[in-house]
Write a structure and sequence with these properties.
The complex is a heterodimer of chains A (about 210) and B (about 160). Chain A is mainly alpha-helical and about 210 residues long. Chain A has one domain. Chain A contains 6 helices and 2 strands. A two-stranded antiparallel ribbon of chain A has the order 1-2. In chain A, a hairpin with a 2-residue loop joins strand 1 and strand 2. In chain B, helix 2 packs across helix 3, helix 2 runs parallel beside helix 4 and helix 6 crosses helix 8. Chain B is built from 8 helices and no strands. Chain B has about 160 residues and is an all-alpha fold. The chains are: A mainly alpha (about 210), B mainly alpha (about 160). Chain B: It comes from Labilibaculum manganireducens. Chain B: GO terms for molecular function: DNA binding; sigma factor activity.
C-alpha cells in the first residue's frame, strides 16, 4: 500500500542518522563580532544623540528663559562627547584579525578603561548638571522677580552678600551627594543602556574561557 | 551563547532546525550555514522570548524566518516569498530512507511559504499554530494544507515536474 506523506515523514526520521546536528563552526567568532558591532552602533548613536541633544537644550533653554542652564549643559555634554570620541578611536583600533577570545578580551579591556574614565567624569558632571540647573533657574527672570518680591518683605530671608545662605544649603548637600554617588549613578545609567550587551559579553567570555580551560 | 544554553535550549530541538534548514537548502554546506545562523539567531533573540508560546514554536518561527531571509539574501533573482522557487539546484544529499528523499525533493518544489506550511503540518502543528508561526489567518490553513498535499501527491506520483 502506498504510504501517506505523514507516514513517510514519521518513519523517515526514525532513522538515527537522519537528524544529526551539524557541528557549529566559527560560532564564537560570529557572536563576538555581533556583540561588538552592536555595541559600536549603540555607542555611536549615543554620542550623536549627545551632540544633537546639547544643541536642542541650548536652544530650548534660551526659548524658555533659562539660558544659563542651556549654556552649562551645552559645555558639559560636549566635554563628555569629546572625551568619548577620543575613547571611541581606541575601540576602532582593536585588531579584528585575531581569534574571538583575544578580540573579546581586547574589547573588554577597552570597555573597562572607558567605563573607568566615564565613572570619574560622572562624579563631576552630575553635580555640574544639577548646579547649572539651579543657576539656570536662579538667573531666570521669573525667579529673580519672585526673589525681589520676597526681599521687599521685612525679615523674610537671611542674606550674606545678597546670597540667601539658607537656600544654598540644600543645593550644596545635593551637589555633594551627586559628586559622591556620581559613579554609582553612572553605573546604573550605563546598565540601563548597555546592560544586555555587557551580560552577553561576560557570558561569551566565560564560555570561551571554559572551553579553553 | 553559553554551552549550557546550546545544550539545554537548542540541541533538544535540533531536529526541528535540521528538518527546516534541510528543506530550504540544496547543499550540505548551505545547510550547515543555515543551521548555524538559526542557532545564532535563537541565541540573539533568546531574551525576546516572552513565554507566550511554546519554546518549540518559537524555534519553528525563528528557523523559518532565518531560512526565508537567507534564501532571499542568497537568491540572485528577486522573488516574492510566495512565488514558485526557481528550478532547484540538484541536491545530492540523501537520507537512508528513500521515500523521505522523494518527499523532500517534492517539498522543495513547493513555494517557500508552502514549504513552511507543510513542514509545520508534518510536524503535527495545529492549524492555529501554523497560522501563528507563519503569521496568517488560521481559516486558510486547512484549505492550503489540502492543496499542498494534493500537489505533493502529484509530484510523488510523477505527474508533476
Amino acid at each position: 500500500m502506498e504510504k501517506s506523506i505523514e507516514t513517510i515523514w514519521k518513519e523517515g526520521f526514525l532513522e538515527s542518522d537522519a537528524l544529526v546536528a551539524p557541528k557549529l563552526n566559527d560560532l564564537y567568532n560570529q557572536k563576538s563580532k555581533h556583540i561588538i558591532d552592536k555595541f559600536k552602533r549603540m555607542f555611536r548613536i549615543n554620542l550623536n544623540a549627545l551632540f544633537i541633544g546639547s544643541f536642542v537644550i541650548l536652544i530650548a533653554s534660551g526659548v524658555v528663559g533659562i539660558p544659563v542652564m542651556g549654556i552649562g549643559y551645552f559645555f558639559i555634554l560636549n566635554a563628555i562627547l569629546l572625551v568619548n570620541r577620543k575613547l571611541m578611536k581606541g575601540l576602532f583600533k582593536i585588531d579584528k584579525n585575531v581569534n574571538s577570545y583575544q578580540y573579546l578580551k581586547s574589547f573588554d579591556n577597552w570597555m573597562k578603561e572607558q567605563l573607568a574614565v566615564n565613572r570619574k567624569l560622572a562624579r563631576y558632571y552630575y553635580p555640574l548638571f544639577f548646579l547649572f540647573m539651579v543657576l539656570g533657574f536662579w538667573f531666570s527672570q521669573d525667579i529673580q522677580e519672585t526673589f525681589k518680591g520676597i526681599l521687599e518683605r521685612p525679615n523674610q530671608i537671611y542674606l550674606i552678600n545678597n546670597i540667601p545662605v539658607l537656600w544654598t544649603i540644600p543645593v550644596v548637600i545635593i551637589t555633594g551627594l551627586l559628586a559622591y554617588f556620581g559613579d554609582r549613578i553612572y553605573n546604573f545609567d550605563v546598565s540601563l543602556i548597555y546592560g544586555q550587551v555587557f551580560r552577553k559579553l561576560d557570558e561569551l567570555i566565560a564560555d570561551i574561557e571554559e572551553l579553553r580551560a | 551563547m553559553s554551552n549550557d544554553f546550546y545544550t539545554s535550549s537548542i540541541l533538544p530541538y535540533a531536529a526541528i532546525i535540521i528538518k527546516i534548514c534541510r528543506a530550504y537548502t540544496n547543499t550540505q554546506e548551505d545547510f550547515e550555514d543555515y543551521y548555524q545562523e538559526v542557532c545564532l539567531q535563537i541565541w540573539r533573540s533568546n531574551e525576546n522570548f516572552r513565554g507566550q508560546s511554546e519554546w518549540s514554536t518559537w524555534i519553528y518561527r525563528l528557523s523559518l524566518n532565518v531560512c526565508l531571509t537567507l534564501l532571499k539574501k542568497n537568491s540572485k533573482h528577486h522573488v516574492t516569498s510566495d512565488q514558485l522557487p526557481d528550478v532547484a539546484a540538484e541536491d545530492n544529499r540523501t537520507f537512508d530512507d528513500e521515500s523521505l528523499n522523494h518527499l523532500y525533493t517534492a517539498i522543495k518544489q513547493l513555494s517557500e511559504i508552502d514549504r513552511a506550511v507543510v513542514l509545520l503540518y508534518l510536524e503535527e502543528k495545529s492549524y492555529q499554530e501554523i497560522a501563528e508561526i507563519i503569521g496568517t489567518n488560521p481559516n486558510n490553513i486547512g484549505v492550503r494544507v489540502k492543496r499542498i498535499k494534493e500537489r505533493l501527491k502529484k509530484i510523488l506520483d510523477g505527474k508533476v515536474n
